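Reagents: none. Just compute today. PAS domain S-box-containing protein/diguanylate cyclase (GGDEF)-like protein.
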Amino acid sequence: MSTAPPSGNDSGKAVADTLPALERACGDDGLPSATRALLAQASEALRTVLAEAEAARKRYRALFDAVPDPTSILDVDGTVLDLNAAGVAAYQRPRENIVGRPIHVLNPDLPRDHMDPVLEALDRGDSYEIEVTNMRADGTRFPVEVHSANIEYEGRRCILAVARDLSTRWESESRYRLLLESIDKGVILFHADPGQVRVVSANPAAHRIFGVGSSESLERKFNPEDWKIVDENGDELTPAQQPTVRAMQTGQIIESTVLGMFHIPSRQMTWISVTNVPVFSPGGSQPEHVFALFSDVTALKRDNALFDRTQALAHVGGWEWDRVNQQLYLTGEVRRILGRAHPPQTMPELLDCLRPQYRRPLQAALGHLVDINVGFDLELQGQREDGHLLWIRMIGESEAGNPSATRLSGTIQDITQRKQAEDVLRVQARTDPLTGLMNRDAILGELSAMLASPSQNRIAVLYVDLDRFKTVNDVLGHAAGDELLVTAAQRIVGAAGHEGLIARFGGDEFLIVCAIGDDHSRPERLANALLSAFSDGFRFGDDEFTITVSVGIAYAPEDGNRPQQLIQNADAAMYDSKRRVRNGWQAFTPELAQRQQDRLQIETHLRRAADNDEFHLVYQPQVDLRQGRVIAAEALIRWENHQLGEMRPDLFISHAETTGDIVRIGGWVLREACRQVHEWREQGHGIIRVAINVSYRQFLAEDLAISVRDALAEFDLPGSALELEFTERVLIEDAPDTVNTFMALRELGVMLTIDDFGEGYSALNYVRRLPIHGLKLSQLFVQGVPDNQSDVAVCRAVAAIARSLGLGLVAEGVESEAQRQFLLQLGVPVGQGFLFAPGLAPDEFVHRLGRSPDFAHA
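Predicted 3D structure written out:
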């Protein structure tokens, strides 16, 4: 127990008060001298004691005030008995305002029983330490760390309390805590317990990164059994491999390590980049703690994974060329694309991966990039080590704004599949999918190139058309027609061999282009070989068909020096051959050229005929064959051109069908016929039914039902005033809307008739299922009765079909009384032809309405 020096208290004061009395006694002459001598000695001794006591008190005060920390002596009840100078300065109070008062004057927040734990510790022989907040005279607070010990003061047990100001340390610790709490990096302090690494504390960022609430225990969250830790490649780490344990065991800093922290209960993966720093205790040789400082890189890891995956899916990677060190850096995807066991590490090695003809363009592009900072985008072909060819798209650029950049970079993309697809599409674009021959565009391109080549002095074009192909296609169907085209293509290839380029030009038409050179007979020899190739029939099941070819030949340069001109002339020669005799060939001639010129002239004028009001209609009566009464009329178009004069209908109508002008002409005929019927009704002749012909092109090119409805409405006519005559080609086309169109026309009340019935090949099936009213017996057969037995048989068959289907029947081309009698006996009720009247002008037609021919009652 410590003992304090004298302190000048009340007992010392009493001793000091005794000294004057002794000195007065020594001077009293009434006392014996011996007594005065003893009193003098006592007075001197007392004076010495007082001097020594004062000296001791001063030493005590000097020492007490020399203590730099606020120090106080407390009674066991907490009363302040003494306070040093540092305390007076710290608390900013006079000493007399503190001494003799309870300790609460310095720390008003202490509880009533604050001395109990202090005395308990001191009774055990221990010191007592506590951090509290003391108060200055102005009410401000400051933190102190108080160390308390026993002391004997003025002969009794007291307490010596030394208070160390913690303001500076708290400020430092506050800054440290503020730093830890404000940074976005996680910080965890680990303590090395035997056999494990235990979490001591963590900052808020660590709680946030691992999803731990402020009220949750991070130590409980980091139960080792709940975690699986993997490296950046996804391989699981053993405890000994984990960076925190390695830092603890080796005492070395383990810098930036990417770890995947998989929390098993929540199935949550968090990726961090962590640095582990060992912390040693003073004088220690082994780390006592490890600081783990880490960043959340989950999003970056995900983005990198997605980027790598995107690169792999897009087959694109990156390259960088260090020109100073001549090093080439390639990403993993580029190395995979190049398919080399030892990927190139220099630009020359990369060039060696390319085919020779593609090396120079890349070298030139790199030179431009280096010299004038012009980027490049090239498609290059290379070869893998396994021998397979590859295509790459290589893009290069230098650092932006740095023309002298030493590093060039860019991307390399695998475009092999696209290039292969382009090659396939290029072949497909030039190939007829059915026959495998060149198509129209391909042969036109080849012909253009041959005509432009100076080495080709003479070229022949053979236009090949299959005779009677339509018969097979219509009778047996499109599948058989396709089979016939494939077989025909094979025969043409076999006949032509390698002597010319062969193409399917369209439909059942083929083209052969050959260079003549010194072999002037080659085109004719090819034409004859084609005729021979088709001498044998084509079998389809049990059926056999004779299919021949008609061939037209045109020569360059005499018959033209442009592809279309040559083909057009060969086509004209082919049609001339087909017209004269099928299964033959014909070379283009000047006469054909003139005919072609006439055709072009007709087509040119025909296109403007409707606008120039050059068309008019004549009306051929349809009469009752028994009574001779006119019951209807067929409108026939006539064309009188101001330059060409009167044009034959069969001539200009075929041209109009070819050019497509028939659609516009057909629309004019429809409106004009309706207008004329309206005019006749206005003149008092009643409703006269007029039949008009409808082209298959007109049927396919417009909404016919709407056009007919609008024309009838415009002239206020019932549908019964109109009869539409369709050729069998309309039926055979069998467009998806054919039946719907026929039904719509029938609902309008319009009569529907099949013209020239019997000339087609497969119309019977359509006649059976389409909603038509009647048939017209072709003049092709009528003109041979009653003498030609074949024509008689056909007429009887058509009449029988009409009767069995309940259809009306009109005979065309009746020119003799014998024909009329035959048709009457056959049961044909109506006919038209020159026996009754040709096509008549409108006024002549109504004039004939009231007349009856001589046979009226025969």
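The chain has 30 helices and 33 strands.
Action item: order primers for follow-up constructs.
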